[in-house]
Amino acid sequence: MSNNSGHRYREIANSLLADIRGGRYPVGARIPTEHAISQTFGVSRNTARHAVQELERLGLITRQRGAGTVVVKTDPKPAFINSISSIGDLLQYAATTRLHVRRVRAALALPAIDGVQPQHHPQEWVHLEGIRYLEGKDTPLCSNDIFLHPDVADVAPRIGTSPMAVYRMIEQQHNLLIQSITQTIDGVVLSGDAARELGVREGSAGLKVIRAYNDFSDRTVEIAVNIYPAANFTYRMTILRNTHGAEHP
């Protein structure tokens, strides 16, 4: 599947999800057939099938012989399925969520992430504190802290004003390309302000996802720290067999 069709089937799945949540397709109702979806959205039958499979994977629908594809639930188990496998997939994540920036200040310290050693003192970086929500929802998805390298800190006023990914703002405004992203995921216990901001009980389990965005000169221009309640996050990845050389146990 091409990146374009990959993004398209997620957009269609999100549209159908909105219709399910909005009551157009309540529990017990049938969603349109793959043929009808392909006609409505102007996509191939294969893309429509992937969109339906995404809803089925989330547990929202089930295929019943003689009854078609029926809605069995109006909300998926996790609030967000992280299936990001390329830099381009982060655009889709930004497009389906919104960020409310609460505070902008000089950084007191930079997040620690293996293999990333920023060359500037923390206080030279700009730190944005915010809460991210799924589009159309008022329940927090995660807390979101963004740290900007001093050379690209002038994008700060744009963050939160549009669904564009921060790294894309940096690329456009500074005529550079993000070449790689270094990511770590750690389990955390949510307490104090973190628990209150996310609307969960003290001591709840959470996941901290840290991403460092690096340009082609290996300069880290952005570090993003997302903290999710455990119930809001599932991470999915695909591991492919290496077909280009010998494999070792």
Descriptive report:
This protein is of the alpha+beta class and 249 residues long. It folds into two domains: 69 residues, Arc Repressor Mutant, subunit A (Orthogonal Bundle); 156 residues, 3-Layer(aba) Sandwich (Chorismate lyase), CATH 3.40.1410. Helix content is 25%, strand content 31%. The strands form three sheets. Strands 4-5-6-9-8-7 form a six-stranded antiparallel sheet. The chain has a two-stranded antiparallel sheet with strand order 1-2. A two-stranded parallel sheet has the order 3-10. Helix 1 crosses helix 3 and helix 2 crosses helix 3.
What is this structure, in a nutshell?
This protein is of the alpha+beta class and 249 residues long. It has helices spanning 3-21, 34-41, 45-57, 89-95, 166-174, 192-198; strands spanning 61-64, 68-71, 80-82, 97-106, 126-134, 140-148, 178-190, 204-215, 220-229, 233-235. It folds into 2 domains: 3-71, Orthogonal Bundle (Arc Repressor Mutant, subunit A); 80-235, Chorismate lyase-like (Chorismate lyase, 3-Layer(aba) Sandwich), CATH 3.40.1410.10.
Q: How are the elements arranged and paired?
A:
Blueprint lengths: L2 H19 L12 H8 L3 H13 L3 E4 L3 E4 L8 E3 L6 H7 L1 E10 L19 E9 L5 E9 L17 H9 L3 E13 L1 H7 L5 E12 L4 E10 L3 E3 L14
Parallel strand pairs: 3-10
Antiparallel strand pairs: 1-2, 4-5, 5-6, 6-9, 7-8, 8-9
Helix pairs in contact: 1-3, 2-3
Q: Which secondary-structure class do the elements indicate? A: alpha+beta
Order of helices and strands: HHHEEEHEEEHEHEEE
Order of strands, main sheet, comes to 4-5-6-9-8-7
Q: Work out the radius of gyration.
A: 20 Å
CATH hierarchy class name of the largest domain:
Alpha Beta
Gap from first CA to last CA: 30 Å
The gross shape turns out to be: globular
- CATH architectural category of the largest domain: 3-Layer(aba) Sandwich
The figure for the number of domains is 2
The tally of strands reads 10
Low-confidence stretches: 78-83
Helix content bin = 25-40%
Main beta sheet: 6 strands, antiparallel
